[in-house]
Amino acid sequence: MKKNVFLLLLMLLPLANVQAQIINKSNKDKIGKDIKEGVHDALNAIKQDAHPTGEHELWEAYAGPRLGFGASMLVGAGGLPEPGVMAGGFFDVFVAKNLSLSIEFNYSHVGGNNIKTTRTIDGLDNQGKAYHTTEKIKNNVNVGYINTLYCIHWYPWPYRSVSFYTGLQFSRVVNANIKEHGGKKMDVKDDIYSGEFAFPIGASYEWKQWSFDARYLISPRRLASAQRTKDIIGSAHNMSLMFSVAYRIEIF
C-alpha cells in the first residue's frame, strides 16, 4: 500500500523545530531553513503526480477541500430557484477496488425566490366603514445549513475515473430569514425545524487531483414548524442541485 506522509504532520514538524531552537538566537538562519524546508515538503505533499482510474488499492484514502454552487427550490411553495453556494471538506477511503466510503462536512445556502402569498388588510374608509382587502406579496426564503454527508461511491469502469454515489445527509440550521420584496426581513430560525436530512444522488469525474461533482439532494421533511412560516411556505421542503470542484490529496 502506498503511504504518503500526512500533510498536517509535515506542516507541524518545522514548527516543532523552531520551538526547540527559538531560545538560541544564533540559530536564526537554521530556523529559517527549517521553515522553508517544511513548507517545501508540505507543498510536495499537496501537489502529487496523480493519474486516477476506476480501480484503487484497499484502504487508499484521500482528503481535501470542496467548493461549489447551485440552485435550490422549496418544493410545494412555488416560486423560482434560489442561487446558493457550498463550501467544506471531505475524507474518502476505499473499502474495495471500486468502492469507497466518504464523509463530508460543508456549509450550504438554500431557499426559494418569488414565493407568492396573500395578505389580508383591514381598515376604515372615508365614511368610517370597515373594509377588507388583499394584496399579493412575493418573498425570498434563505436558509443556511451545516451539513454532514455520508456516502458510498461506486466506480463501474476500471479504466475511467468516473463514480456514482448516494448516501444520507444530516443538516443543522445556522441561519434563516424570509424577506418581502421591498419590505422587511424576518428572522425565522426558530420557526423552522432545526434539524433536517436529505438523500443525495450524484456523480463525479476525477482529473489529476481534481474532482468535478454534480449532486441532487431532496429532503422529505417539511421546513416550517411555526404558523407564521407555514402561512408563507406551507408544507414545502428543500430540493437542491449542486455543482462542485474538490482537490484530492492522497494521504494513505
Secondary-structure blueprint:
Elements: H1 7-21, H2 28-46, E1 61-75, E2 82-96, E3 99-124, E4 130-154, E5 162-180, E6 185-187, E7 195-207, E8 210-218, H3 227-233, E9 237-247, E10 249-250
Antiparallel strand pairs: 1-2, 1-9, 1-10, 2-3, 3-4, 4-5, 5-6, 5-7, 7-8, 8-9
Helix pairs in contact: 1-2
Describe this structure in words.
There is one protein chain. By secondary structure, the chain is of the alpha+beta class. It has 2 domains: 1-47; 55-250, Beta Barrel (Porin), CATH 2.40.160. The chain is 16% helix and 55% strand. The protein has 3 helices and 10 strands; from the N terminus they run ααββββββββαββ. Strands 1-2-3-4-5-7-8-9 form an 8-stranded antiparallel barrel. Residues 1-16 have low confidence and may be disordered.
The average pLDDT is: 87
Q: Kindly identify the CATH topology of the largest domain.
A: Porin
How many structural domains are formed by the residues?
Answer: 2
Strand content: over 45%
Number of helices: 3
Sheet with the most strands: spatial strand order:
1-2-3-4-5-7-8-9
Radius of gyration based on Cα positions: 25 Å
- What's the shape? elongated
CATH architecture of the largest domain: Beta Barrel
**What is the helical fraction, as a range of percent?**
10-25%
Spell out the helices and strands N to C: HHEEEEEEEEHEE
Main sheet attributes: strand count, strand direction, barrel closure: 8 strands, antiparallel, barrel
Q: Outline the low-pLDDT stretches.
A: 1-16
